[in-house]
TrEMBL record:
Pathway: Pyrimidine metabolism; dUMP biosynthesis; dUMP from dCTP (dUTP route): step 2/2. This is Deoxyuridine 5'-triphosphate nucleotidohydrolase. Keywords: Hydrolase, Magnesium, Metal-binding, Nucleotide metabolism. This enzyme is involved in nucleotide metabolism: it produces dUMP, the immediate precursor of thymidine nucleotides and it decreases the intracellular concentration of dUTP so that uracil cannot be incorporated into DNA. Residues 25-156 form the dUTPase-like domain. It comes from Aquisalinus flavus. Its EC number is 3.6.1.23. PANTHER family: DEOXYURIDINE 5'-TRIPHOSPHATE NUCLEOTIDOHYDROLASE (PTHR11241). One of its GO terms (molecular function) is magnesium ion binding. The keyword Magnesium applies. Transmembrane segments: none annotated.
Amino acid sequence: MTQMPTTKPPIVQLKRLPHAAGLALPKYETALAAGADVRAAIPDGEPLVLKPGERFMVPTGLAMALPPGWEAQMRPRSGLAAKHGISCVNAPGTIDADYRGELKVILINHGAEDFTINRGDRIGQMVIAPVFQAIYEEVDELDETARGEGGFGSTGSK
């Protein structure tokens, strides 16, 4: 069973891979930001161009170790989404505590124009959050609720 998170912030160990030399580590851009910005670790002078509809796993040049009971969520940056239609395909992307490979951000261009990513560009934001592994129990019947089986718009569209 996993260890339950505490109220203290977790210590997240980061390993800088060779292609991230000189890039900033994840950073909270404001005092109360929930997500730390991560940067593109692509070769200098070799920009990545995402055409409309294209997606690409952009490397960050970082690997990490999270303590048990925590996950990292990779999310889109709101400014890139609002201004250029750039988002994450699997938002939020979950990074499990036992993963030790390179962190990558799966970006997609929902915009109408090509989007260029250069080395060091902020491409996503990483949120560290507690997780719990549930205990699943099979039963013959579930308790009744007012909502019942209503879903997917059953409470109205406005």
